[in-house]
Design a protein that fits this description.
Layout lengths: L1 H23 L7 H23 L2 H24 L2 H44 L2 H4 L3 E7 L3 E4 L1 H19 L4
Antiparallel strand pairs: 1-2
């Protein structure tokens, strides 16, 4: 039973790999550093687009602003020891928790929708010899990681900066 499920998943992923080979396979003819950079851009666009189109950005910004304001007021009241303000904030605590829950749900929904395609994409990248052989020598040493990055480390670095820049351009929350 379980083996049959894995076979089905493997066959399904194979269709995606064939599609990715025909659409983006040419990037693996380039040096691995550039190919993985393109992968980071493609995955970043997919991920950020999912969040941009599936999340009400204005509502998310409003909720973040309100919860941030609540947290600041709470910290200030705790610091000064103002009992009246603490009691007032205690009555608002449930609303703040509900808003945080709503905010988390809003940001998680697109992640669930983009997770499977991205995992398939990573499987495709991992199967590419240019990615597996990629080692980047850093001009500095990172704690716990040393002075080299493999394809995944390079991808994470590129993806982080590209995704943040794209979020800024789109004025996302």
């Amino acid at each position: 039973m379980i083996l049959g499920i894995w076979d089905t998943i493997g066959e399904f992923a194979g269709y995606f790999y064939d599609f990715l080979d025909s659409a983006l396979g040419f990037i693996w003819e380039w040096p691995g550093i550039y190919a993985v950079f393109v992968v980071a851009i493609v995955v970043g666009v997919i991920s950020v687009s999912g969040q941009y189109f599936l999340v009400n950005q204005e509502k998310l910004k409003r909720i973040r602003r309100e919860t941030s304001e609540y947290q600041k007021r709470l910290m200030q009241a705790q610091k000064t020891g103002t009992k009246k303000e603490l009691r007032k904030l205690e009555t608002q605590k449930k609303k703040a928790q509900q808003q945080q829950s709503e905010m988390m749900g809003m940001t998680m929904r697109p992640m669930f929708l983009t997770f499977i395609p991205i995992i398939i994409f990573f499987g495709w990248v991992r199967a590419q010899p240019a990615a597996v052989e990629l080692v980047i020598d850093l001009p500095f040493t990172l704690p716990y990681f040393g002075d080299t990055l493999g394809w995944l480390g390079w991808y994470l670095l590129c993806s982080f900066f590209f995704s943040q820049a794209l979020r800024k351009i789109l004025d996302m929350a």
